[in-house]
Specification:
The complex is a heterodimer.
Chain A lengths: L2 H21 L1 H4 L1 H22 L1 E2 L2 E2 H31 L3 H5 L5 H28 L9 H25 L5 H15 L12 H7 L3 H14 L6 H24 L7
Antiparallel strand pairs in A: 1-2
Helix pairs in contact in A: 1-6, 3-4, 3-6, 4-6, 4-7, 4-8, 4-10, 6-7, 7-10, 7-11, 10-11
Chain B lengths: L5 E9 L5 E10 L4 E5 L6 H8 L7 E6 L2 E2 L4 H6 L1 E4 L11 H11 L4 H14 L15 H13 L5 E5 L7 H17 L3 E5 L3 H7 L2 E6 L2 E7 H6 L3 E8 L13 E6 L2 E7 L4 H10 L4 E6 L3 H24 L3
Parallel strand pairs in B: 3-8, 3-9, 6-7, 7-8
Antiparallel strand pairs in B: 1-2, 1-4, 4-5, 9-10, 11-13, 11-14, 12-13
Helix pairs in contact in B: 3-4, 3-5
The chains are: A mainly alpha, B alpha/beta.
Chain lengths: ~260, ~325
């Protein structure tokens, strides 16, 4: 395929993915908005008013970056996992396989589609948050970089999950038993400085902690961890996971007999 | 001489569980041909076609589409290929025209080029009124036609139809035959067809290959194959019931019902002899038809022979 044809193919896939999640917006865009509104009312407003400040910032403002990041992570991941697995389940994955699209275009198309949903929901949550607190971005470039990279990383993760999944249960195991606990323990609702030293050390092994903190740094200007190193680590994970997903796709893991 | 539309050499497929689905088959399909690939269920037809369109990974062998080796430049080979699989394989929730537009996009065809082509295909295949509805609302026959339209959107030179008329009513099947004949004759599209309706293969195809137990057991023209038919079986409907089947010299006659006889006619035998003897017995025939279509008779006989040989070989290989 020449570069123009590759662009057409890539756009077709991305557009198809965006059309899919916007067509079923009551399942994809509405629930995170409602859930996050509940978080802001209950944790931010009712409980947060008794907690006071965290790292010198009101509790409501402190949890905003973590909740935005949580929405970006879960939506980027689940969009690709459910969409690609659904293609496998309905055998429409064969539409891509018989076409001349290179594997990296198929992977990128789904990843960009997942990112579109993750970032779209992140934007909705940001708008919701702005009704509860002042959302001012201190470091726009850092904020944008980390949200894009996090979204890409978890979209690739969702793709790998979908490739390996044999049934619908297999695409909910990782979000329920891995992503949600790691996100909650990734400093969304608290600073790890509040933890005993041992648990601070354990928390440092949680990759989501780095993403949440870098994002918090971008928005609020405060972070529990060094920002530069975290960005490099996320970039390295993206490259590693992308190559792994590409290798699996090339070998036909889960899709070719 | 022009290179074949499809060339297969030594194609072997061994699945992870050790089952050998293809045992080194060789096959050539000439350009512009209407070719039938026949075989019983599990013979290796779909595995062969799966390898050609990259849904199945081959263990060994070489496949070329219009001279392009799929191992060297699969993308180029795929441009020449359109596939209509046996099972429905599109998103049931998408609109009919969106499915076809998307497929065009996967081949790098911009929407402004794809739209007029898509509209024409939808009209030709009787799907125009359904273009804005979700695919799940289509009938089975319409879903098959949707897959044909999708496979043709990028103007492939080789079209693979894996049981395209399964579950389709007679009227619709005939209109699909006409359409396939048209694209074969007018547009020069090479068509490879697998089907269980052997009259379909007999009326549409010029060349034929029969595959069984992962091997090509016959590869010839339909005309040649039919000349090899040794015996044809006819059903005779009688004007009045008979008590027992009449004895007719040199012919095998069986009674299937009171007023129905089955007659086996070997190559070289004359039907006049039968009717003369039936008249002598005072039996009047009101109508007569083939028990099965001629190709079906040939196919069943060949596959039975091949299965018997396979059983003999298996017995011989069992250690005592």
């Amino acid at each position: 395929m020449n570069p123009r044809q590759i662009l057409v193919a890539l756009w077709t896939l991305v557009f198809k993915e965006i059309r899919r999640f916007t067509r079923i917006w009551p399942q994809t865009l509405l629930p995170p908005s409602i859930t996050m509104t509940m978080y802001f009312i209950i944790f931010g407003n009712l409980i947060g008013s008794r907690i006071g400040e965290m790292d010198g910032i009101s509790y409501m403002a402190y949890i905003v970056p973590g909740l935005i990041m949580m929405s970006v992570i879960t939506n980027s991941y689940s969009n690709v996992a459910s969409s690609f697995f659904s293609n496998k389940f309905q055998r429409s994955v064969e539409e891509f396989m018989v076409s001349p699209m290179p594997d990296w275009v198929i992977l990128s198309g789904f990843v960009l589609g997942g990112m579109a949903r993750g970032l779209g929901v992140g934007l909705i949550v940001t708008v919701v948050a702005s009704f509860f607190t002042d959302v001012t971005i201190h470091h726009p470039l850092v904020t944008l970089s980390v949200v894009l990279m996090t979204s890409a990383l978890f979209a690739i993760g969702g793709f790998i999950n979908a490739l390996m999944a044999n049934k619908f249960d297999d695409i909910s195991i990782v979000p329920i038993f891995v992503l949600t606990p790691l996100t909650y323990l990734g400093g969304v609702f608290y600073s790890i400085d509040m933890l005993p030293e041992f648990w601070q050390g354990v928390s440092m092994a949680n990759p989501i902690l780095y993403m949440v903190n870098v994002f918090r740094y971008g928005i609020l200007g405060v972070s529990d961890i060094p920002v530069g190193g975290a960005l490099v680590a996320v970039a390295a994970f993206i490259v590693g996971f992308f190559l792994l997903a590409l290798w699996m796709l090339g070998r036909g893991k889960g899709i070719r007999s | 001489m022009a290179e074949p539309a499809l060339s297969i050499r030594g194609l072997t497929k061994v699945y992870d569980n050790g089952f050998t689905a293809l045992k080194g088959i060789d096959l050539d399909v000439p350009q512009g041909d209407f070719f039938a690939l026949l075989g019983p269920n599990g013979a290796g037809k779909s595995t062969t076609l799966g390898v050609v369109c990259s849904l199945v990974q081959k263990t060994a062998g070489k496949v070329s589409i219009y001279g392009t080796d799929i191992d060297k430049d699969f993308a180029k080979a795929k441009y020449n290929l359109g596939v209509v699989p046996q099972e429905f394989n599109f998103s049931q929730f998408e609109k009919v025209e969106d499915i076809i537009h998307a497929q065009a996009g996967y081949y790098g065809m911009p929407l402004r080029e794809a739209k007029p082509r898509c509209n024409q295909l939808l009209k030709d295949l009787g799907l125009w009124d359904k273009r804005n509805g979700p695919a799940r609302m289509l009938s089975g026959g319409m879903k098959r036609r949707l897959m044909i339209a999708r496979a043709l959107i990028h103007r492939p030179r080789l079209l693979i139809l894996d049981e395209p008329t399964a579950g389709v009513d007679i009227e619709l099947r005939r209109s699909m035959w006409e359409y396939m004949k048209r694209i074969n004759q007018e547009e020069g599209t090479t068509i490879i067809l697998t089907t269980h309706y052997l009259e379909e293969a007999e009326s549409l195809c010029r060349n034929i290959a029969i595959i069984n137990h992962g091997e090509i057991v016959k590869n010839t023209t339909v005309r040649q194959l039919l000349t090899e038919l040794d015996t044809e079986t006819f059903i005779l409907d009688l004007a009045a019931p008979v008590e027992k089947p009449p004895r007719i010299d040199s012919f095998e006659v069986e009674q299937t019902e009171g007023s129905q006889l089955t007659l086996a006619v070997k190559k070289g035998q004359r039907l006049n002899d039968v009717f003369e003897q039936l008249s002598a017995h005072g039996i009047n025939v009101v109508s007569m038809r083939n028990r099965a279509n001629r190709l079906e008779e040939m196919f069943v006989s060949m596959v039975d022979d091949d299965n018997a040989k396979a059983r003999e070989t298996a017995k011989a290989e069992v250690p005592s």
